[in-house]
Amino acid sequence: MKLDLDRTPVGQSDLPIDGRLNLDFGTEGPGEVRVSGALRVDNLEGRCVVRGELAAIGRASCDRCLGEFELAFPVPVELVVLRDCEAEDTDADTLVVHQRSGVVDLAEALREAAILAVPQSRICRDDCRGLCARCGADLNAGDCGCEAEPFDPRWEGLPD
Ligand SMILES: [Zn+2]
Ligand SMILES: [Zn+2]
Questions:
Q1: How confident is the model over 64-87, as pLDDT tens digits?
Q2: Residue 89 and residue 99: Cα distance in Å, rounded?
Q3: Domain check: are 97 and 160 in the same one?
Q4: Percent of residues, the chain, with pLDDT higher than 90
Q5: 136 and 120 belong to one structural domain
Q6: 19 φ, ψ to 5°?
Q7: How many Å lie between the centroid of ligand 2 and the Cα of residue 70?
Q8: Can you give the pTM of this predicted structure?
């Protein structure tokens, strides 16, 4: 997750990425994710533009059944290493790192990109049946029997 400015050729090159990021999502979402893929580096005068899409994979708990599952999601990356501090900033959505030379550690910028890319809804699979609202059983493991209970008419007409 490092970009060596002194060794990056002028023009276009590929930057392979493979590492782990801690997104600090606590128990709610992925904590540590592995990101991998290749980014494209445009080494221009005064700046290095790094963009592409990485694949992230981590453990998350399902919003419906609370079970742990492997969450995979794409992480779009667009960041600029400004080597000339006088240079104009780019648009606000782009992550900017200021560094003139040497090795740039991209971990923090990639972490920010990954946090933004975490899916809002995390479902272990499209047809996850979730938990029974009455007894809390995991319905993916089979019917809990609650649905077989007859509807109780005493609840009818009660205010919500
Ligand atoms: Zn689920
Ligand atoms: Zn039940």
A1: 999 999 999 999 999 999 987 665
A2: 13
A3: no
A4: 60
A5: no
A6: -170, 180
A7: 26
A8: 0.79
Mark whether 55 and 95 lie in a shared domain.
yes
Q: Within this chain, do residues 20 and 81 fall inside the same structural domain, yes or no?
A: yes
Distance 136 CA to ligand 1 centre (A): 13
Which ligand is nearest the CA of 63, by number? 1
Domain count, the chain: 2
Runs of H (alpha helix) within 1-157:
107-117
Looking up tokens 């007859």, which residue turns up? 150
- Tokens for 134? 């009455």
The rounded Å distance from CA 151 to ligand 2 centre is 14
Domain interval for residue 146:
130-160
H helix or E strand, kind and range, residue 109: helix 107-117
Q: Which ligand is nearest to the CA of 130?
A: 1
Tokens matching residue 88: 């104009």
Rounded distance from Cα 127 to ligand 2 centre (Å): 18
Are residues 47 and 118 located together in one domain of the fold?
yes
